Amino acid sequence: MAELKYLCGFGNEFSSEDPRCPGSLPEGQNNPQVCPYGLYAEQLSGSAFTCPRPANKRSWLYRILPSVKHKPFVPVPCENLTEKWDEVEPDPNQMRWRPFSIPKSTEKIVDFVAGLQTICGAGDAKSRNGIAIHVYTCNTSMMNKCFNNSDGDFLIVPQQGELRITTEFGKMTVEPNEICVIQQGMRFSVDVFGETRGYILEVYGAHFELPDLGPIGANGLANPRDFLCPVAWYEDREVSTGYTVINKYQGRLFACQQDFSPFNVVAWHGNYTPYKYNLNKFMVINSVAFDHADPSIFTVLTAKSTRPGVAIADFVIFPPRWGVADHTFRPPYYHRNCMSEFMGLIKGHYEAKESFQPGGASLHSIMTPHGPDAECFEKNSLAELKPERVAEGTMAFMFESSLSMAVTKWGLETCQKLDKNYYQCWEHLRSHFNPNWQPTKH
């Protein structure tokens, strides 16, 4: 496959036209009476018209046919994609899942949409406030089919297998250790090249943005210039047998038919685009004296709530880095949190629990205690504190949310991957209390 080209920057005002049609972007206005090349002008709004300028998101698409040309939407089965947060009783226990199974192509053909399964979530797409966490497991490409999420943004984290994503804005290749964001309303199709698995954080009612840096200063964490968005690419293709557009709307799936490819955008401009990011480019900030800085220093993207400093969802990573803190227990500390913490592992071994496996997950719900297992505690309480590389060859991540997430029936039962013995990793923690302890004399 030819290497794709990208535009760089986060939230920039971009413009792009397919080089096969030079001059396809109108000059000096958005909606001329007659567009160049006889194209249709169509605006895609990611925010209310009256949002303050820094928050106003929109792009203009110049396409061969407008997206309104389709047959009516009809309901289609959702399978294990759901927003039913009350289908099972609440469960505050620590949860861990073994790697989610990928269907074999010899047994069942499953594309990206058919392979979506919801693990947990909270809130409501209709009221535009909430999140959902999904896993995708698939083995075949989407054929004459695209997906459109009317409910919110998808942050996609590949764990196994490369994704070739075609969007109305152009094409992106997204590999494990990269992420991409497909924002609300953007149509896309996914090609895969074998058994493929990953995680998705869906956010209703807010868009992802870079976290504020505050005292960190002007530089650090994810740098805006490292985010990439596709360049314009179009196909002028009739599909006599029917092209299927699948729409996720109010937590349900609907499908409509049209007789042409939706990826017929010859040119576009605006600041509302899909984008990708390579996690290796994250500039890690860390303690260089003693104790821990809170894991918020590893935030890549945040979807803010209306409460200052409180996120609907944060996307946090735990990348390779140096550990140098003196007289400090270096693994993550024991914790009870007013936020929900969902973790996944892309590759390697998570530093606090060696038994956590790539392609699996864990959920530590609001105020549920969690922390290093017994083996990790004993080992690191006695370790020589010399500078060392932490998480080398590993990439773990966390979806953290202020919402109290409910686990679906699929997550608790149907997937058959829930490790019901997870609690036992803390069973061997023993008391080291010594009432006769005296401080060491120097």
What does the secondary structure layout of this molecule look like, with pairings?
Layout: E1 6-8, E2 14-17, E3 40-45, E4 58-63, E5 74-76, E6 95-97, E7 116-124, E8 129-138, E9 145-149, E10 152-160, E11 163-167, E12 170-174, E13 178-182, E14 188-191, E15 196-204, E16 228-230, E17 238-249, E18 252-260, E19 265-270, E20 275-278, E21 299-304, E22 311-318, E23 321-323, E24 340-347, E25 361-364, H1 374-381, E26 388-390, E27 395-401, E28 406-407, H2 409-414
Task: Tell me what the structure shows.
The mean pLDDT is 95. This protein is mostly beta strands. The chain has two helices and 28 strands. 3% of the residues lie in helices and 36% in strands. It has helices spanning 374-381, 409-414, and strands at residues 6-8, 14-17, 40-45, 58-63, 74-76, 95-97, 116-124, 129-138, 145-149, 152-160, 163-167, 170-174, 178-182, 188-191, 196-204, 228-230, 238-249, 252-260, 265-270, 275-278, 299-304, 311-318, 321-323, 340-347, 361-364, 388-390, 395-401, 406-407. The radius of gyration is 23 Å and the shape is globular.
Low-confidence stretches: none
As a percent range, the share of strand residues is: 35-45%
Backbone structural class: mainly beta
Oligomer: single chain
Shape label: globular
Task: Tell how many strands the DSSP assignment holds.
Answer: 28
Overall radius of gyration? 23 Å
Major sheet strand order = 20-13-10-15-8-7-28
Main beta-sheet strand count, sense and barrel state: 7 strands, antiparallel
Terminal-residue CA separation: 66 Å
Fraction of helical residues: under 10%
Count every helix, treating DSSP H or I runs of 4 or more residues as helices: 2
Mean pLDDT: 95
Helices and strands, in order, run as EEEEEEEEEEEEEEEEEEEEEEEEEHEEEH
